[in-house]
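Chapter summary example: a protein plus adenosine monophosphate.
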Amino acid sequence: MSRPVGIDLGTTYCAVATINIAGQPEIVRNSDGQSITPSVVLFDNGEAIVGQQAKLQRAAFPDDVVEFVKRQMGNDAWHFYPTAGDPYTPEGISAVILKRLASDASQVLGEPVRDVVITVPAYFDDAQRKATKDAGEIAGLNVISVINEPTAAALSFGVERGLNGTILVYDLGGGTFDVTLLKARNGDFGIVRTDGDRNLGGFDFDNAVIQWIKAEFAARTGEIIEGDVLEAQLRDRAEQAKHRLSTSDQAPVFVSAAGRNEKLVLTREKFEEITESLLARTQMLVEDVVEGAELTFRDIDKVLLVGGSTRMPMVTRMLTEATGQAPDQSIHPDEAVAKGAAIVAALRGGGGAPTPTPVVPGGHPIEVSDVVSHGLGVIVLDGATGLEINAVIIPANSKIPCQRADVFFTVVPNQTELKVRVTEGDETDLKYVKKLGDSLLKLQPHPKEGSPIQVIFSCDIDGILHIEVVDLADDKPLGEFEIDRAKNLDRKEIDRMRDALSGLEVQ
Ligand code: AMP
């Protein structure tokens, strides 16, 4: 029997944690002795190498190294093609990473790891959450839950240090940005509101530095930097310079390209200037969330920083100016999320070995409630205009788990089929919503149009949607189903990938 663990499956780095005998969350180091593992995979002769080794090889083997795959979760059009072997989906690559994390943790804990809680950005949608769960399954794990990263971070803070009041979590990671408002009271952690941008993170700050390096190099030498190998090198240099600028006023950048060796110097001031618009986007989302919760910055008791990119001094400065208080930097941004996931793993269990129950200071038991980050609805015909519109059934920021129902009407006499087309988004106009998938149901024909059909949406504790449809004319349930998610793998593909992965050597 094995203990459940919490996994922070980050865009750039991952971490694993469990609960120790004292009931406190603790990071489980990887087999290199590190608390974090780069989310990078190198495919090499039928083997997959994950982590630091893969990261070090990315300049030498750009075609066989894949990273930032979290940004592709829920994108069915994306595949990675290693030079040899079959292509990989985002779920498949994530599964390879999870397999290495679980196998490292097994070695350290001295027991197989099976039950896991995996964290996702709060702003991940239904397809991205489902893809994350599928990745766990492909890796041969039992995913007890997927939970929101800011919730996990606040939980670990609460458990380690005790936390009461209204808290704003600003989470700027490698690839995503989330802002979350929550209320904590004696072990009760309730999310009030959340928003974010799934394509805004440290990666974009690196891109800005890469652009600057290219422009600077061209200005000095008249030469253009091109080619995959050089791009990968530049990305490393850019990230290193960015890290350096978190503690120094300037960073040297050495570039060897087109037969020239140049030492460029990036100042913090210049770095902040070229990334100003990225930071401003995060500020706008913070303001939206606070206003959306009908609060002002004066109502916020604490601002927590999560995610590696919050080490950039401009983040603290912007938040201090915007909120009127210095953010709390006492939690370890690389570890907080995994530790929070470990707490939820211990609370929800997975049928394996029991772990000590985590409690907050004062001995209070822990309760966690989260919200759905996007509205969920169906496409219907607008009676007034005859045009298709989005009818929201579960609005964004509804507390989960939740169940909401709405009644719709058949549109033609003797209608025999009903297509439930599920959407994600809060706007009525279909231009601004995402189509999650649909399901075709058989109807007992009713002679007249306008026969009432009830659609019941349930959003589970992981933020994943389940649907029930009832024919109200004869009170007959038409079934309970999961949508045929256009963006996700089907059962057969998941099974096939799990079998394929079990034969792959992962280091
Ligand atoms: P996370 O996904 O939370 O692990 O965050 C990873 C991101 O944090 C990457 O984009 C890193 O480049 C960035 N990061 C880590 N350390 C620093 C630092 N000292 N200064 C600036 N960014 C950092």
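Key point: The mean pLDDT is 89.
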